[in-house]
Design a protein that fits this description.
The complex is a heterodimer.
Chain A lengths: L6 E6 L1 H11 L4 E4 L6 H12 L6 E4 L3 H13 L4 E5 L1 H16 L5 E6 L13 H4 L7 E4 L3 H16 L7 E6 L8 E6 L1 H8 L6 E3 L5 E3 L9 E2 L8 H30 L8 E4 L6 E5 L3 H14 L4 E6 L1 E3 L3 H8 L4 E6 L10 H10 L7 E6 L9 H17 L6 E3 L5
Parallel strand pairs in A: 2-3, 2-4, 4-5, 5-7, 6-7, 13-14, 13-16, 16-17, 17-18
Antiparallel strand pairs in A: 1-8, 6-15, 9-10, 12-14
Helix pairs in contact in A: 1-2, 1-6, 3-4, 6-8, 9-12
Chain B lengths: L8 H6 L15 H11 L5 E5 L3 H6 L11 E3 L5 H17 L9 E6 L2 H5 L2 H9 L5 E6 L39 H6 L5 E5 L4 H13 L4 E6 L3 H4 L6 H10 L6 E4 L2 E4 L1 H8 L7 H5 L14 H22 L3
Parallel strand pairs in B: 1-2, 1-3, 3-4, 4-6, 5-6
Antiparallel strand pairs in B: 5-7, 7-8
Classes of the chains: A alpha/beta, B alpha/beta.
Chain lengths: ~400, ~325
C-alpha cells in the first residue's frame, strides 16, 4: 500500500478550496463568468493567472452560455477544462449542458448551489443543479470544504476516464460551504498532478481504419457536433446512458485510489452512510446538511434511538443498488429536498429514493421534507423533530403527510 | 508556413477543396458557393466552427460530412464562443508542447441569424477579448433554415414568413442592421465586406483576415433562391447587382481605416455607373410587392436609404 502523502492544513472557504484544487489539477483552459456565490472561485483563479502560478488560458467570457461553450470547444480540442457557476448562470448554460454531455466533453464545473429567481435570492439551495439532473452530467454533492477540495481533484479523473467521458458537476452549498472558512488539508502539487495525470484521449477509427485521437486536429480532420436524424440520434443517447453506468464503478475506484493518497474517502464515493447498520429511522439528504444531521444522530444514539443517515454523494448517476441496500432494513425514512419540483408531489431526491425502494424486499415508510429554500437556516432542533416524526410514524403505523415543509411559516 | 498565394484560377482549381461536394444545399445556394471559396483561401492547418444554420445542417448529416478539415458545431448563438475556446486550447497546448502544428487558424462561420441576432453577444465578447480568429458571416438575409423568417439582416421591404407583404404591411418595416460598421466600432484589426461574384476580392479578404493578429470579421453577401424567391441560376448575378447598386458595397477597414474595394471604388469614381436599386430588386419574389403602385413610396425610401448609406460610406473612406 502506498503511504499517505504529506499534507498541509490551509484555512480555506469552499470556493477557495475549489480554486486551489483546480489550480493543482493543471487545467489548460478555464472559461467562466462571475456569479454569487461562486465569484470567489473565478477571482481566486484570476489571481493565480495574474501571478503566473498556473499554466492556464483563462477566458473571462461575456456570459455563462459562452463560458460553457468555450470550455466545451476547448475540451474537444484536447484541453483539460474547468468552469464554475450557480443559479441563473447555470440556468443560462442549460442548452449547453446537454450539448457538452452529448459531445462527450469531460468538462468539470463547480456549482455553488443557489436559489433561482423569482423573487431574486442569492442564498443557498439546490434548485439550480437539481433542475439540470437530466442534462447528462455526473453530479456530486459535497458535505464540507475538505470534500469539495478532494472532489474537484477526483472529478477530473472521473470525467476524463475513457469509459466515462462525461462532464461532472461538483455541487457545494452556497454560502454554507462556499463562503465558510474551514481547515482544509491539501496535498502538494506533485501528488495532485500525479493523481490527475495528463488528459487521455480515446482513439477513433478513420474511414481508412487508422486509429486517431478523438479531438479537433488538422492531422486527422473530424466532424464534431454533427446533425443526427431519427436514424442515428437515439443510439447516441443510449451510449450516454452506458457511460453513466460505467461512471458508477469509476467513481468508486477513484474514491478508493484517492484514499490511498490522501487518507480520505467519502463512503464508497456514491453514498456515505452513518449509523445505518441497525437503524430503524433514517434521514436521506444531499449536501452540507449531512454535517448537522450527524450531530443530531449522535445525540439520538446516546438516548437509545436507532437513528441513521444516508448522504447521497453521487446523485447522477443515481446509485440505485447502494441506496436500496442502505435503506432496505430501515423502517421509516425521511428524504430531504433543498429544491422544489412544483406540482410534482415531492422533491427530486424524494422521487428518486422512493422509486429505488419500490424494488426493496421490505418497504419502509417514506416521507419528504422540503427545507432551506432561498438559504433559510435549518437548525439541529428542526432536524431532530424529523426523527421524532419518524418515530411517531412507526408507533401509529401511519403517514399523515407524505410531503412536509421544514421551517416554513404557513 | 503560410502557403504561397497567387490569386490565379489555376491555383484555386488545383488546391484541394476543404468544403466538399455531396452536401445537401439547394440548387443555386449562395452560401455553399461562398463556403467553398472561403476554404480555398486558407493558408495552412485550419479548424472551422459553425453556428447552427443552413450550412451546418447541409454539410454534417451523420454519418456523412462535407468537411475535410476539423469542424465543430455546438449551438446557434455561440460560434464566436466556440472559436474562443478552440483558440485558447490551441494556444496553451502549443505552449505545453502538446500540439505539433506551428500555427492553426480558426474560422467561425455563421448566418445572419447567428450573427446579427442571437449570435451578436458571443461575437462582441470574443472580439473584445481579442481572440485570434476569423468570423465569417454568410448573409442570406433571413432565417432560411427554419423557412424564411426575418432577421436583423433582412432588408427594408423584404417579404419573409414573419414579415409577409400583407394588405396593411409591405414586408419588413425596418432597414438592415449595419453589422460590419458595428464590428468596426469594436476597434478590431480587420473588417471587410465581400461578394461571391467578386471571388478574387473575397479570397484575398479571407486571407487578410487570417493573417492579422487578433479577430477579423468578414461580411459575405450570399443569395438564397428559396428564400428570395429568385431564379437559382441568378444567385451570382444578384451578387453582382447588389454591389453595382450600392445595396451591398465592398470595402474593408484595416485597423479602423475604411477603404473601398475596387468594384465599389470604380462606382465612387464614376457615379454614373451606379445602378438603381430597382435593377437589383426586380426579379426577386421577396420584393415583388414593391413594384406595385401602392408601394412606390417605399421603393423610393429604399433608394433614398441606400444612397444615404453609400454617401456615409464614401465619407468614411474619404473618396470623392
Amino acid at each position: 500500500m502506498k503511504s499517505i502523502a504529506k499534507q498541509e492544513v490551509m484555512a480555506l472557504n469552499g470556493d477557495e478550496a475549489v480554486a486551489y484544487a483546480a489550480k493543482q489539477s493543471d487545467v489548460d483552459v478555464v472559461a467562466a463568468y462571475p456569479i454569487t456565490p461562486q465569484t470567489i472561485i473565478v477571482e481566486k483563479f484570476s489571481e493565480y493567472v495574474a501571478n503566473g502560478e498556473v499554466q492556464t488560458e483563462f477566458i473571462c467570457t461575456e456570459s455563462e452560455h459562452s463560458a460553457l461553450t468555450a470550455c466545451l470547444a476547448a475540451s474537444v480540442t484536447g484541453a483539460r477544462t474547468f468552469t464554475a457557476s450557480a443559479s441563473a448562470g447555470l440556468a443560462l448554460m442549460h442548452e449547453m449542458l446537454f450539448v457538452t454531455s452529448g459531445c462527450r466533453a469531460p468538462v468539470v464545473m463547480a456549482i455553488a448551489n443557489r436559489a433561482l429567481s423569482a423573487p431574486l435570492n442569492i442564498h443557498g439551495d439546490q434548485s439550480d443543479s437539481m433542475a439540470e439532473r437530466d442534462s447528462g452530467w455526473i453530479q456530486i454533492y459535497v458535505e464540507n470544504a475538505q470534500e469539495v477540495y478532494d472532489s474537484i481533484i477526483q472529478a477530473f479523473r472521473i470525467a476524463e476516464d475513457l469509459n466515462v467521458l462525461l462532464p461532472v458537476i461538483v455541487g457545494l452549498d452556497g454560502f454554507t460551504l462556499s463562503h465558510t472558512l474551514e481547515n482544509v488539508k491539501v496535498l502538494v502539487d506533485d501528488v495532485v498532478q500525479r493523481f490527475v495525470g495528463t488528459r487521455q484521449l480515446p482513439d477513433v477509427l478513420t474511414h481508412e481504419g487508422k486509429k486517431v485521437p478523438f479531438k479537433l486536429d488538422p492531422e486527422s480532420p473530424m466532424t464534431m457536433g454533427p446533425i443526427a436524424l431519427p436514424d442515428y440520434y437515439f443510439e447516441f443517447k443510449r451510449q450516454q446512458e452506458e457511460a453513466m453506468k460505467n461512471a458508477l464503478a469509476v467513481i468508486q475506484k477513484v474514491n478508493s485510489e484517492y484514499a490511498t493518497v490522501s487518507g480520505r474517502s467519502y463512503g464508497n464515493g456514491l453514498v456515505d452512510v452513518y449509523c445505518l447498520e441497525d437503524a430503524e429511522v433514517a434521514v436521506v439528504c444531499v449536501g452540507s446538511t449531512a454535517g448537522t444531521i450527524k450531530t443530531v444522530v449522535d445525540e439520538l444514539r446516546q438516548e437509545g434511538v436507532k437513528a441513521g443517515l444516508l448522504r447521497i454523494r453521487t446523485f447522477r448517476p443515481l446509485p440505485v443498488e447502494e441506496i436500496r441496500r442502505a435503506l432496505e432494513n430501515v423502517k421509516a425514512v425521511a428524504v430531504m429536498d433543498k429544491s422544489m419540483s412544483f406540482g410534482g408531489n415531492g422533491g427530486a431526491v424524494f422521487h428518486e429514493v422512493r422509486h429505488v425502494l419500490y424494488d426493496a424486499k421490505a418497504h419502509p415508510y417514506v416521507v419528504n421534507y422540503i427545507y432551506g429554500l432561498g438559504g433559510r437556516d435549518t437548525s439541529p432542533q428542526e432536524l431532530r423533530a424529523i426523527y421524532e416524526d419518524l418515530q411517531r410514524i412507526l408507533q401509529t403505523k401511519r403517514v399523515e403527510k407524505p410531503m412536509q415543509y421544514l421551517g416554513l411559516r404557513e | 508556413m503560410t502557403e504561397e498565394w497567387k490569386f490565379t484560377t489555376k491555383d484555386i482549381a488545383e488546391k484541394p477543396d476543404l468544403f466538399l461536394s455531396g452536401h445537401r444545399a439547394c440548387a443555386g445556394c449562395g452560401p455553399a458557393t461562398v463556403l467553398r471559396l472561403i476554404m480555398k483561401a486558407t493558408r495552412g492547418p485550419t479548424i472551422v466552427t459553425e453556428a447552427t444554420g443552413c450550412m451546418e445542417v447541409v454539410s454534417s448529416i451523420y454519418p456523412y460530412t462535407s468537411w475535410a478539415t476539423p469542424w465543430l458545431h455546438t449551438a446557434f448563438e455561440n460560434a464566436a464562443a466556440n472559436a474562443s475556446g478552440i483558440e485558447a486550447a490551441l494556444k496553451i497546448m502549443k505552449k505545453k508542447g502538446r500540439i505539433k502544428q506551428e500555427h492553426v487558424d480558426v474560422i467561425a462561420l455563421a448566418g445572419d441569424g447567428g450573427t446579427y441576432d442571437i449570435g451578436i453577444q458571443a461575437l462582441s465578447g470574443a472580439v473584445e477579448r481579442g481572440h485570434d480568429f476569423l468570423f465569417v458571416l454568410y448573409d442570406n438575409e433571413a432565417y432560411m433554415n427554419t423557412g424564411i423568417q426575418r432577421s436583423g439582416g433582412t432588408p427594408l421591404g423584404a417579404a419573409t414568413t414573419t414579415s409577409p407583404a400583407g394588405t396593411v404591411m409591405p414586408g419588413k418595416l425596418e432597414p438592415k442592421k449595419p453589422i460590419a460598421e458595428i464590428m468596426v466600432a469594436h476597434e478590431m484589426p480587420y473588417v471587410a465586406t465581400a461578394s461571391p461574384y467578386y471571388w478574387r476580392d473575397l479570397l484575398s479578404k479571407v486571407r487578410k483576415g487570417l493573417e492579422v493578429n487578433g479577430p477579423a470579421f468578414l461580411h459575405v453577401f450570399a443569395p438564397c433562391p428559396r428564400g428570395w424567391r429568385s431564379d437559382p441560376a441568378k444567385s451570382i448575378e444578384y451578387s453582382k447587382l447588389a454591389v453595382e447598386s450600392c445595396v451591398f458595397p465592398l470595402w474593408e477597414a484595416v485597423n479602423g481605416q475604411c477603404q473601398l474595394s475596387t468594384p465599389s471604388k470604380l462606382i465612387a469614381l464614376a457615379p454614373q455607373k451606379k445602378k438603381p436599386v430597382k435593377d437589383y430588386l426586380q426579379g426577386q419574389g421577396r420584393f415583388r410587392h414593391l413594384l406595385t403602385p401602392q408601394n412606390q413610396k417605399l421603393l423610393e425610401e429604399i433608394q433614398r436609404l441606400t444612397d444615404e448609406r453609400w454617401q456615409r460610406l464614401l465619407k468614411k473612406c474619404q473618396t470623392t
